[in-house]
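Quick illustration, no need to memorize.
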Amino acid sequence: MIEMLRKKSASDILKIVLSAFSLAFLIGALCSPDLSEMFSGLGRIVSKPSLLTKDYFFNEIGSVSGCFLNVALVGLVCNLMTWLPGATASGGTVAAYMLTVGFSFFGINILNIWPFILGTFLYSLVKRQPFAKNVNMAMFCTALAPLVSEVLFRYPLGPEEAHGVTLLGVVLALVIGIVVGFSMPALCAHAQNFHKGFDLYNAGPAAGFLCLMIFAIMYKAIGNEAPAIAATLGEGSKAVCNVLAIVCFVLCIALGILLGGGKGYGKLLLDSGHKADFAAKYGIGATVINFGVYGLFILAYYNLIGATFTGPTFGVVWCMLAFCAAGATPLNVLPILIGYWVGSLFGANAINAQAIVVGACFASGLAPVSGVYGPIAGIVAGVLHYCLVTSVPAIHGGFNLYNGGFTSGLVAFVLVPVLESFFKPMKEWGKKS
C-alpha cells in the first residue's frame, strides 16, 4: 500500500490525508461518551445563531458527538469538492480544509456553508472558470458563516429574539453567500499586498474587512441592534480530544516517514515560512510529518498551560494545522507563543483564558515574522496580537470567524514596515552593509 501511495502525486496524497481526517472526526463522533445525543445535538447546532463564540460541545447548543458529526459532514463536503475532476490539492487546499473543519467546532455547520458554495459556483460561471479551480475559495468564504445563521434564525429581530426560517431569511442568506462568493477571490488576491505574505491567514484580512462592511450595513447604518458578542462555553472533553488528536498526529508522522520524509524534515523545520509551499520544496513526506509534529506541539502547549478542551479551543488546534504545509513549523511559531505568554504577564487575561488560547493559535499566522526577522521580532508580534485580538471582534460584530487571522493582518500591516526599515532579515545577519 505504501508503494502505491509513493506512486501517487503530492496532490492525491494530500487529498487522501484530508479525507482521512474527516473519517477520524466521524470515528470521534461514534466514540464520544454522549453518543445518544449525536443527532439531537447536530439538530441544535444547525438551528441556532453561531456568533462568536458558541461551543458546539456544550449541551445547550449541541453535544460532543453531534459536534464531531458536524465536523465530519462539513469535512466530507470539502473532501468531495477537492476530488472534483480538475481540482488540485496544494498547501492552500490544506489551509482551506483545516480552517473549515476547525471552525466546524464553533461557527460553521452543515447548514450554513451552502450559500457560500453557491456564491463561489456562480462566481465561477460568471468568470467562465471551472468550479474545481475555485474549491479552496469556496471553503475560505465560510469565514462569514455566522452571518448566514444569523439571518436565517434571528435577523432583523432584536438580539434576544429568534424566529423560524423565513423566506426573507433564506433570501438574505443567499444574497450574503453570493456577495461573499464574488468578493472574496478579489480581496484575497490583493491581501498579499496588505501584509506582504507575513500573515499566513491570507483570507483573514479579506474576510475581516468584508465582514466589517456587511455588519455596518446590516446593523449600524440602519440602526438595528446588534447581538452581543459573548462566549457560550461548556466544560469540554479533554480525554476524547487528546486521544483523537494524538492518534491522528502520530499516524501522520508514521505515514510521513514511510513516504520518505525523514531526511527532508530537518530542512523544513528551518524554513522561514515566508511564502512557502512545503510540499513543493521538501516533498510530501516531510510535509505530512510536519502535520504530526506540529499537531503534537500544539497539543503539548495546550496541556502545558492548562487550556480547557472546549469546541472552540479544540477546533483551533485544527485551524493551526491549516498552514503546516505552507509556512508554519514548531520553530517559527514558538516565539509567537512566547510573546503571548509575555503579554499575559502584564495583561488582564490569563494565558489559558479561552479568548487568549484561541488568539494565540491564530497569532501563529505571524510565523513568517519570526522566521524572517528572528525570534525577538516573533515575540513582539505575539505581544501585539495579544493586545489586539479581544478588541477586534467589535468592529465586525463577531461574525467573522477569521478574527485571529484578521488581527494577524493588522499586526503585520503595522510591524512589517518597521522591521523592513530598521532591521535586516536573519539571512543577512553578519553581512556588512
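The chain has 21 helices and no strands.
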